[in-house]
Specification:
It is a single chain. The protein has 5 helices and 2 strands. Strands 1-2 form a two-stranded antiparallel ribbon. By secondary structure, the chain is of the alpha+beta class. The mean pLDDT is 91. The chain folds into 3 domains: 1-37, no CATH class; 44-99; 102-130, no CATH class.
């Protein structure tokens, strides 16, 4: 097993929690690096952290990856049945083919979340009476 360097970047803050900026107004960032041994194999990871912890992390990260796929497919206009078929064939670590977003579907999805006032302004821009 070998340690690897892990770097974390963070935005610099003053004592009041405000972003620190340079003379040009750009936010300043700093970084810290530490060494950590994750293990080289699944068996190493289990030996270091325990089976429950390794499975918990696997499941949590897989859930986040799957949620991203679901959101992307829904945004692209796919229905729940089509999304379920994609999910059924998915395995953690797989890269899913990108789905082209239908612009009409994107507008419909956005439109459905707008207030009546915003909808009316949008329709007016298109020359359509609300």
């Amino acid at each position: 097993m070998a340690k690897e360097a892990i770097e974390a970047r963070y935005q610099m803050k003053d004592e009041n929690g405000n972003a620190v900026t340079d003379e040009d107004g750009k936010v300043l960032w700093d970084a810290i690096a530490v060494d950590y041994d994750f293990g080289s194999t699944l068996d190493d990871a289990i030996a270091l952290c325990g089976e429950e912890a390794v499975h918990s992390q696997y499941k949590a990260n897989s859930r986040v990856a799957l949620q991203a796929i679901i959101r992307a497919k829904k945004k692209a206009g796919l229905d729940n049945t089509a999304i379920q078929a994609i999910v059924a064939a998915w395995k953690p670590g797989m890269v899913i083919e990108k789905t082209q977003i239908d612009p009409a579907v994107a507008i419909q999805n956005a439109f459905s979340t707008w207030s009546d006032e915003k909808k009316a302004k949008f329709l007016a821009k298109l020359g359509i009476a609300a």
